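Our preliminary data section would be incomplete without showing what the modeling component actually yields. Below, a chain of 226 amino acids is followed by its predicted structure, encoded as tokens that our downstream tools consume directly.
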Amino acid sequence: MQSKDPSFSRKSSEQKLAELALNIGTLSHAEAAQQLLELSNEFRYYSFEAEIAAPFEKAAADLKAKLEAKLKALQEEAAATPTPVVEIPKVEEPAETSAPEPVKAVEPATVTEAEPVSSETSETLNQPEPTSSPGTKTPITEKKSLNDRLAGTVLKFGLNDRIGFVKELFDGSQEDFNRVVSQLNTCSSLEEATDYINAHISDEYGWDQKEETAARFMAAVEQKFS
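Predicted structure:
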């Protein structure tokens, strides 16, 4: 038997019971007894259902009260808890930069005009070099130029002569050749240079067996002091 709405089911059973009381005279004993038994079972079910439902209704009421109390406690706790304040970082404004100093224009350098050449100086520069008149004796020795004088202060050798002197006069030693030439450049006279060669070089390297090459070397030394 399925559960029904108690108020509706009980009312329906009470209506059946009233109809049975009005019509009981028209029914047989068996029909009247059958209907009374059915109505009795229905009223017994309603009583049993009420007994069972009572504890559940009480438990439901208690559970509802507990849930409402818990909800109230949570609401009070939420209201008492302060809301955290989130600080928004402040964006610093860029510092004001001073305007760049204007670039000063560079003044052009003052060009000094060359002084005009005086007429006397111009005439002196334009005068031709004096020539010796016929019958005038020209000096035998002319002054050497500065380059000529400087060229005569050091020993000079052509490439082929240098290679030949190193190979034949200094046994292939470029270092010995450079050392002797450096020493000869410090000599102040041809006599001093000749004495140095005779005392320290010619015998050591056997120049007496290389007379032709040694003669060419001495000619270059003599040219240095000429």
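Confidence is low (pLDDT under 50) at residues 110-144. Residues 6-80 form one domain. Preliminary results of this kind motivate Aim 1 of the renewal.
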